């Protein structure tokens, strides 16, 4: 009888533990042209990028302070190519330095670039390209383009395989399909995993990626998380270690868009397996880990914006393993390009369209 | 000797089937070769499983392409009897497929839809599959008329 009572109690307790967290959605800004990334300034303002090449500074209520088209060297706009991520340098308070990632070059010869700039009251000054991924390739697909800072103030920049060049993700001599680690001036940290190793590009931090469009470093757990688009199926959440190989295109659970098999292997010796995956694909875009105060139930959860799935995936993590997944904000019926955890404890979403929105999520 | 005279549409479907099977095997071959170059080799069982997978999955994408390709060949052969030579039919199938691939890649969101056609060797191989289908169709058509 006691066991039966305990069982009943557990059955009723589970729905309480998993009860949906109520939330409200408020549109702070709309008519955004394919917004791509968002970052919060110390004074409560936000910087927002649009793929078309625009940088906007918004007040906390979403009102526009400025909207500019910075003169990014060789900015390329076509299909997936354009302005991508924005992030504040660790010493932003001292020098107002920000970093921007973008596709650069021409349709026949392009790759991902990283620029630094100084944020002023009315725009950006002193824009300098500090890195360009090599080699230059043709086509306007798979640029990666997300940036995160590590605790030593070096940064990691995610890159794509260029779609037609997927085998190059396993070639350590170039940057296609890699995550690279750089200093804020574009130089190479001398403790990168392949520095001075013949046949290896010194900038490489990890390899074997397809198109990484979400990355963040969680300082309390000292973990660098990233996710990447698979082809048809095979989207992955990974924990990134210096020098590790994440398998693409040798080990994948995805297949080509035509239905053809990319590889016979879903796992391969010496290649890191993902900690979580999505098949069919959700097309993961931005990603954050929530440590705000407004949503106690969401503490330390990872939020993954999804383009194809038109929602946000909330992942509960225990011991670096995903133990629960919840799909959120699907009522928006919008492709979600980015999700960020604001300093005020709210979640912020960017929807992906030519009439994109910045949406604030509060309890 | 018993001879079965099919309607030309039946010959066309046979040619489409042949082209699709050859294209699937070609697609498998190029993807497997790329993986083998990265891993040092692929076991025979994995090769067979990949070819079977592509025959049952990639074929769903490729059959409509082959059908349109060879239907265009059949229409041209019907209205232009001068083209009913094997070498011309083979060339016609290849050229029409090349045009189709260029159009597909221009319209598709990705740079190259069919992975095998990322390289010149792969593209030529796929064109040869189309040539084989065109030859098959013309041979069946001529055979039908011979026994008529």
Architecture blueprint of SSEs:
The complex is a heterodimer of chains A (363) and B (148).
Chain A: H1 2-17, E1 24-32, E2 35-40, E3 46-50, E4 55-58, E5 64-68, E6 83-88, H2 92-95, E7 97-105, E8 110-119, E9 124-132, E10 147-149, E11 155-158, E12 178-182, E13 204-207, E14 212-218, E15 223-228, E16 235-239, E17 276-278, E18 284-289, E19 302-306, E20 311-318, E21 321-328, E22 336-341, E23 347-351, E24 356-362
Antiparallel strand pairs in A: 1-24, 2-3, 3-4, 4-5, 6-7, 7-8, 8-9, 10-11, 11-12, 12-13, 14-15, 15-16, 16-17, 18-19, 19-20, 20-21, 22-23, 23-24
Chain B: H1 8-39, H2 44-56, H3 58-79, H4 86-107, H5 120-147
Care to describe what's here?
The complex is a heterodimer of chains A (363) and B (148). Chain A is mainly β and 363 residues long. Chain A has one domain: TolB, C-terminal domain (Neuraminidase, 6 Propeller). Helix content of chain A is 6%, strand content 40%. Chain A is built from 2 helices and 24 strands. In chain A, the strands form 6 sheets. Chain A has a 4-stranded antiparallel beta sheet, with no helix packed on it. Chain A has a 4-stranded antiparallel beta sheet with strand order 2-3-4-5, with no helix packed on it. Chain A has a 4-stranded antiparallel beta sheet with strand order 6-7-8-9. By secondary structure, chain B is mainly α. Chain B has one domain (8-147). The longest helix of chain B is centred in the N-terminal third of the chain and has 32 residues, at 8-39. The chains are: A mainly beta (363), B mainly alpha (148). Chain A binds chain B through residues 79, 138-141, 163-164, 167, 170, 249-250, 255-265, 268, and chain B through 27-28, 31-32, 34-35, 37-39, 42, 46-47, 49-50, 53-54, 57-62, 109-116, 118.
